[in-house]
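Our preliminary data section would be incomplete without showing what the modeling component actually yields. Below, a chain of 365 amino acids is followed by its predicted structure, encoded as tokens that our downstream tools consume directly.
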Amino acid sequence: MAATLTSPASAAPASTKLASGWSYSQTSIPAGVADGAELAIDQKRRKIFVTDADDFNYKDPKSGQVLPYPHPLNPKVAVLSADSRKVLRSISYNNLPTTTVPVSKTIPAKMPMKQIPVGIALDTRAGRVLTTNAETNAATIVSMNARAATPGDMVKSKLDHPMGIAADPTTGRAYIANVTLDEVAVIDTATRREITRIKDIYSPSFIAIDSTRHRVYIGNADIKTKGKTNYLTVVDSRTNTIVKKITTAANSRPAVDAATGKVYAASFATGEVAVIDPDSLTIVARIQTGATPNKIAIDSKRRVAYTSNLFKKTFTVIDLKTNAVVGAIPAGVGVHTLAVDERTGTVFSTQFQSSNLTVLSVKRG
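Predicted structure:
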């Protein structure tokens, strides 16, 4: 999987011990992929979908240098059972059209690239898997029951460095962040065609949906620590118009608490998690993780939030009752993207440049 980010500076790390009374256990399981990127859980179908982002790049874990690594590719989305935690099957991307891309930044020669899925979202009502294929500036929407994606599953829209993707199952719409276009494409998940574009969003990155309030929250990929381009954009999904831009720490990535509607925006650059009230659309609290949160996930039922800290190789646990950091759990690997099983409270996370998932269980004190 291509990796171009460098480790950001952050505050002192949180304690690696959880607060009194809290406990955890974790293990690692096969993910059915060569290089797990992002994952999503279909809570009703009890399935976990994991994108295999294995491509022609390799990031040296010691130097951080991205090196060309040409080898046979087998792009796919793996499907696991959330209950047995076993790999059930996969959805192959080998039948999709290739795109010619440079071998690397230092090697101008070009080579055909398969459609490598990275970002993922689920249209759970229609039973569809949505992925962004950043290497080829494309996206795919395929049936959850498919064994292989077909050319007809490709999204018909001009995309450029598509990063985050999110779906609103109540409307059948998908939202794809185009980092270099400063736009978010709105897609009909049934036809795979573009409905409209939401413009004037500088370097949109990751996206969260609040279907109840008809809101789309769009993070910002500007890595600058100063300036006016660090914000979270709020969009009315009924009109696709921008309601407000909320100033945040740099490179903040949102998640919505389904129980309260509050938005938790975790800054990959500073480690701060901004808590945003959905009514006033203002920041009402700031939580300092002292980490490098690549993503944040909310367990609304148990009132806990988790961040996967890529460079720190930890999970941060936050008590949503108090907005206090409970502690950081050593993962031993760079944890990339995470999701919570609402039924059990179990956290599943991909591991950077790894074929495994981390499975984490936390018990409240």
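Residues 1-15 have pLDDT under 50 and may be disordered. Residues 1-30+289-365 form one domain. Preliminary results of this kind motivate Aim 1 of the renewal.
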